[in-house]
Amino acid sequence: MSIRLAEANRAIQAALAKAHNLAVNISVTVCDADGRLVAFQRMDGTLAEAHRASYGKALVSATSGRPSGDESIEFSEDFKDFRTATVIGEAAPVIRRPGGLPIIRAGQVEGALGVAGASDEQDVECALAGIDVFTSSGTP
To answer: How confident is the model over 86-139, as pLDDT tens digits?
Structure first.
């Protein structure tokens, strides 16, 4: 199964709702297993660079199958070429900080959701709210 736009948007809305409850501003990115952008939103008042950070966290999680803050992640030489992919017209960064979580269904990594803009802990809280859409909904 692949990530559908409708479910990616629901996940983003869940993450944004959590951010609103925490009174923080964030950017949220959902990408597929190959790191390609599926959906993105940035709240008003979020730092401009947060869009790149949310994508970078999602990219790390999608390609590793682990949370972006996992310090044990090691990348192959091939990943160096992959991370130069573009998002929103800019080179995609590799962000190894908390806030990116893989989307895993039926034992397969289908992509990831990345959050940036608040503290590490708040980014993770918002990401967990978004990931819950994928784990609780089954099929869209």
So the answer is: 444 445 666 667 899 999 999 999 999 999 999 999 999 999 999 999 887 654
Instruction: Please count the structural domains in the chain.
Output: 1
- Which residue type, as a one-letter code, is found at position 55? Y
Residue 116 phi, psi dihedral angles, 5° rounding: -150, 155
Closest CA to 84 of 35, 17, 135: 35
The pLDDT-based confidence of 73 (bands split at 50, 70, 90) is low
Structural domain span for residue 132: 5-137
CA distance 27 to 92: 15
16 in Cβ contact with 44 (< 8 Å): no
**Per-residue DSSP letter, 83:** T
Within 8 A by CB and 6+ apart from 97, the residues are: 53, 57, 68, 69, 116, 120, 123
CATH number, domain of 86, equals 3.30.450.150
Provide φ and ψ at 94, rounded to 5°.
-105, 110
